[in-house]
Amino acid sequence: MKNITFTQTQEKIATGQLMLLYLSMPHCNVCHAVKPQVEKLFAGTSLQMFHLDAHDYPEVASTFQVLTAPVILVFFEGKEVHRQARFIDFQKLEQLVKNYQSMNLSVSYDELFN
Hints:
This protein has one domain: Glutaredoxin (3-Layer(aba) Sandwich), CATH 3.40.30.10. The protein has 5 helices and 5 strands; from the N terminus they run βαβαβαββαα. The chain has a 5-stranded mixed beta sheet with strand order 1-3-2-4-5, with helices on both faces. A hairpin with a 2-residue loop joins β4 and β5. The mean pLDDT is 91. It comes from Enterococcus saccharolyticus subsp. saccharolyticus ATCC 43076. Pfam families: Thioredoxin. InterPro entries: Thioredoxin-like_sf (IPR036249), Thioredoxin_domain (IPR013766).
């Protein structure tokens, strides 16, 4: 999981690729416990994962409407498609990411209408 700036976060979201954004606070014990679990869960996958410290970038709270930590946001095609905060359901998160990764977005005209 890469640490990035707030500006880089917005640029990554705009690319439209499937990505996971992990928001945390420095003195949050739950944040420190959950982050390695998320990293392990998606190790070896193509999922882009980024970490943003909400303490360093206070604008995170208003931009993403975040009131607690940790928060996991999943983005696809530039839009937030999933959010979990504080109590993370790892099975649900894993299944959601697998579903998005398995989507075939390159559908031909013939496949649609024949």
